[in-house]
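for the record, two folds in this file. i put them one after another cuz i was lazy. first one right below, seq on top, structure tokens after. the second one comes after a little note so u can tell where it starts
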Amino acid sequence: MSDFLMLNEEEEEFKKVLNILVNPQHEDNNYDLKRIFLFDGNRDTGKTALLKRLREISQQEPYTDKFNHVFIDWQDKYDKNIKLRVGIDNIKPITVMDAISNEFQESFREFSQMSSDYQDQILSWKQVEEKGNLPEKEELEKLNAPETLVDLVNALGEGISNLVKEQKKPLLIFFDTYEFVGSQKCDFYIRRLIKAANALSKSIIWVIAGRLNLVENTRRNQKVELALLEALKDEDGDVVKVAIDSLMNYKQALQVEQLTYFLLENRHQDRYVRKAAVSALQSITYSNIGHRDLQLAVRAIVETVRKDEISNVRDAASESLQAIYDLDIVKEQLKKHDPSLDTTAYRTKIREEGKYDSNEILHEYLGDKDFSKLEVSIVKSLLRNEDPDVRTAAVKKLGEMASSINETLVQELIKLLDFNNKDSDRYLREAVVETLGKLAKSVPTEEILDSLNEAYRQDVIRDVRDAAKGALEEIEKQDSEMGKLASHHLELMDFSKLLTPTMEIETAIEILTTDEETERQVKAALALGSCQQPEVVGRATEVLTKVLKDENQNQTLVAAAANSLGKIGNSLTLESLLSKLKELEGKDWVARKYVIEALEELLIDEKYGEQVNLEKVIEVLINKWRNDPISYVRDAVEKAIKEVWKATRNPTAYEAINRYSSEDNKEFFQEYPPQAEI
């Protein structure tokens, strides 16, 4: 390494550098001049003693009065400066730059003049920082404030080089106990400072010691950084995720807008990308970012908690929100600059912690009214409020007023179940299905059952689906027509609980071809699953495939058709099943699950051999495993790919199981090892 030196004959190497700086004609002039010395090691390995020894050497003959020195012990700074005692990852780079500048001013009276640009800019920067956000470029220019922290650091580097030129002496800068400020974000700006100063003066030597592995932590290659930024545009979710994780080592504050882009404006389809973006935003909020970026980051995290369809992503966002909202500076900035976002963030946080009380929100809008005497019309009026938390609280309250609710109001509640709208609030939808379940007894309408059934089969949020299913199960207990209908809805979600209808094959085919009653068609489709007679298999397959191809077909009928096609087993149906699976994205998860199970049957059936493009189907299934919002569907994919592995030992299936399964598959692979003979 041409610029960096580790522990190896330290004193002799250091003296060679001093000789060249003092006398360019010295015999050591052919030595490749080192301008940065790095020493790392554990406690009590003599790093501090070594730095002091090197400083003493530079003050003794033949170097007496030939060099200027600045020695900063960062542990000493830490003990004296409260702004450094906030946890290494929370130290602001500007605090470190300030400490360096102050040390120079104490050592050299003229440094303030030599670094006048920096001194002016640091005052302006602090004024801007107090406002909580960077103004527009024109305002920054009026304030003589730098546009970015890098500009400020460059100004300090210029001041240090000016000092060297004015003093006409080489400068030796010693940093001891560097681990106290060596976080990635501070380290980045310190290295920028070194680069800026050394670019303007060849007579500055830096000697740095700390417990960190400084060589491993040294290189911040600009080409790599640019390549990683370019990788954010890649279509492969794995590439983007790795790029996000890696970019956290580079200029963190500049990535806020790019990361929120994956969560807000152009929400990335891959859950691993969104999860990585959320985690990165949590780290970035610990950095020295402006209020505008802080707002954007918090808004993206809150939106992800409330709206992302994948529970793993929501959980990661929830952890991030709870972590950053516990920072006093975050709460202070949000309350000062965006009270509305602060309120939403706080409500979301306490809801995730299970401490949410909807009545508190009603009190905010209705005052200290006696809720036991509250009129339905007053609560109803809140259903149109712009704040989703207010609407949610109103819906919950209506559930407590069941005896006063009529069918018209039920219809208004059902309209709030806008689960196909990605901007719809999941907490609101969950409250609606819970309230509809409570109203089913006092307002027994089929619309309530249909809405609960639709919510269970199509809502992307698990909590909403669970609430809808729970409501149907409670209604099922009623000894009434509503109870029977609820039971029927639940039966049609799992065909394994139904007795296979006994029906002649010809009759079943005729019903599917001519009958328009959905329930009879579902029974006919299920009956065809037992069809194995060679003379009618072709006709049964053709009729069931036609059901799949109808884009407007009832989803329960589609599920029944897929279920039977899997049992019949015909490789000619493969493309139809794959097309249907794609068409069902964002629609009925029960139908998707049965299509996947049908694909599984085709993939593991030995008689098809090369007739089935195994790799193509596995890739489709892997995409579902990664990104289908419904855990039941992802579970069906996992089962299918494991069955494929057992039957074929396909390497892509093996990689997928290792990568995406949340289970411990050690015993599975012991039972079905890669080297087994098929």
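(here's the note) second protein begins now
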Amino acid sequence: MRAAAWNQWLWTAGYPLTAGGFVIAAARRDGAAAWVVACLLILPETVGLTGLLTRRLLRFRIGRKRLFFATTIVSRLLLLPAGALFWFEESPAALAVAAVAVAASHAVGAVGYVGFLSWLSDVVPPEGRGRLFGWRNFGRAAGLLTLPVLAGFGERAVRDLSGDTAADRFGIAMFLTGLAVQALSVLPLRRVDEPAYAAEPRDEVAAFRTAWRRRRFRRWLWHEWGLAAASGLTQAAFFLYATSAGLLNLSLGTFYGLLATMRLMQLAISPAAGVRADRADDPVGMRVVGVTIASAGLLFWIAATPGRPWLVAGAYLAWGAYAWANVAGSKILLARAGGRDNAGAIGLARQTAGLLAGLSGLAGGLWLDAMTESSGDGPATAVWAFHTLFAASLAGRLLSLWPLAFAGDETRGRPSFTVGETRDEEASR
């Protein structure tokens, strides 16, 4: 568990400096439109559909550990050209190169990540998975509290003291640092055992069909896909609304500071969430409570205006509940994904959700462009456009809970919102 937490800490510490806020901020300074920013934000999840190929590769006995290590290193090398955004200002070619680099790196990384989750499901028994994901959530929170926050405030200080050229050099240094830290994230896992993957003699289409026939797993798919689509709407909106001039106009350091507030709460919540999740085989109640509280954070974004930007702090406090929801969700996924041949089911859930989030994010970015750039009504129209998107996302997130919590139990005729309910996976096929 400690190894998995350190892996998550290193990966998360480097991510905002590579395909996260630093790269997006550089694109915005180069004059990228909202839909371009949305594309850069959604590419990692959209191209993640390649994770559906993981099971096919594992059938060739590549090994999940080896696959994860190799794809992590290769994906970081493929992302190197995205640094062009810091060297070439207002260059459409640099934006295109960055987009291709982000897409290629995450397409490779997604293949390894599905294998990684499948590997963890074999290494850690069901009764310990809640604590595993609790400590990984802890590592994720700790990662965002360190390097990204320091880099964000450092970038603003360098820009104010030495100008844009020095800030761009600082940006490329942080970008390379982030790539190195992410590449090193595999080292804590080097001594973790690697059980052989027990692939059943069936092709990928048959594996997907088998997973789809399980009602409990299918309900999880409807929930995860619905939540991903609703959440994706605001992928670009949060960053743009928070940091754009004329809107909330927060500095990059302040933006990461708010993220740090959320992560501080998640640091406190994650270990307890792991222990609580391990008391239930299928912690649906935890998931429902966490998603509901976290979704309510969007109300603060709707209330925040250029005259009251401080209200967004309430959203980041509410988002601390995502630790509760995510720990439960990861355990539910592995519990419902089936036996040891589970890479296909995991990919179907996680990677398809990523695709839906990506497409939804693109739609949100196009909506913001249409409403904020084609209208002559000024900031009032821009604020209205963002608030409309936040309200739509809130409604979708809450509706996504229906198939998980209130659709009813297929064998007992009662709601499935029952913490700790246990049923053999095979019996639900």
